[in-house]
Design a protein that fits this description.
The protein is mainly alpha-helical. It is built from 4 helices and 2 strands, in the order H-H-E-H-H-E. 51% of the residues lie in helices and 7% in strands. Helix 2 runs parallel beside helix 4. It is flat. Keywords: Membrane, Transmembrane, Transmembrane helix.
C-alpha cells in the first residue's frame, strides 16, 4: 500500500471511529407497526435487509460520511477506468494521426497561435463497448419498469430506492461506457498569459 493511501485511510478511520462510537449511543429503537396479517396479505414493511426503524441524527451523520467517501471512491475508480482501460498507452503525433477518410486529424478550431493539439487518439469503437452499452441500456429499462410497477401497486413501495438507484447507476455507467469507447481522446496545450 502506498504511503499516501495509508494516510488517507488513517484519516478516515480517525474521523469515523469517534463518530460511530457516538452514533452507537443514539436513541433506542422504536417498535415496528405492521398490518394485521389475519386481515390482509399486504406486506409494506417487508425489506431486503433488516434495518432500524429510527435513526438518531448522529447515526445519520455517520451513514452520510460513509456514503460520501464511498461515492468518492466510486468516482475515482470510474475516472481511472475512463482514462486507462480503453485508451492507447503510448502517445501519438497529432499531426500524423490517420482518420477514416484517409486524411489526417483536422481540428482547426483547436489550433490557434496560442493553442495546439498535443495528442489525439480516435475512438476505439470496440465490440466490447457496444455490448456494454447494450447491456446497460437493457438494465436501465428493466429498473425503470420495476420502478414504475412499484409505483403503480398499492402496498409495495419499499423498493423505490433500490429501483431508482439501479436505474440511475445504469444510466451513469452508460455515459461512462460511451465516453470510454466512443469518444476520441484529445489533449490540447495552450499558452496562457498571466500578466
Amino acid at each position: 500500500m502506498r504511503r499516501e493511501t495509508a494516510i488517507v485511510v488513517l484519516l478516515l478511520v480517525a474521523v469515523l471511529l469517534p463518530m460511530w462510537f457516538v452514533a452507537l449511543h443514539g436513541e433506542p429503537p422504536s417498535e415496528e407497526v405492521e398490518i394485521d396479517r389475519s386481515v390482509t396479505e399486504m406486506r409494506p414493511l417487508q425489506e431486503l435487509v433488516n434495518t432500524p426503524n429510527k435513526l438518531a441524527p448522529s447515526q445519520v451523520g455517520v451513514i452520510v460520511w460513509v456514503a460520501l467517501f464511498g461515492l468518492l471512491g466510486i468516482l475515482t475508480a470510474v475516472h481511472r477506468f475512463m482514462d486507462s482501460a480503453v485508451r492507447p498507452d503510448g502517445p501519438s503525433d497529432a499531426e500524423d494521426t490517420v482518420v477514416a477518410d484517409g486524411g489526417t486529424v483536422g481540428l482547426p478550431w483547436f489550433r490557434t497561435d496560442d493553442r495546439w493539439v498535443v495528442e489525439y487518439h480516435d475512438a476505439s469503437d470496440a465490440a466490447e463497448g457496444i455490448v456494454a452499452m447494450g447491456g446497460l441500456t437493457v438494465l436501465a429499462i428493466v429498473f425503470a419498469a420495476l420502478f414504475t410497477g412499484e409505483y403503480l401497486t398499492l402496498a409495495r413501495t419499499q423498493y423505490f430506492g433500490v429501483y431508482a438507484a439501479g436505474m440511475f447507476v445504469s444510466l451513469a455507467l452508460l455515459t461512462v461506457a460511451y465516453y470510454a469507447w466512443f469518444l476520441p481522446h484529445v489533449e490540447v496545450a495552450e499558452r496562457r498569459d498571466h500578466g
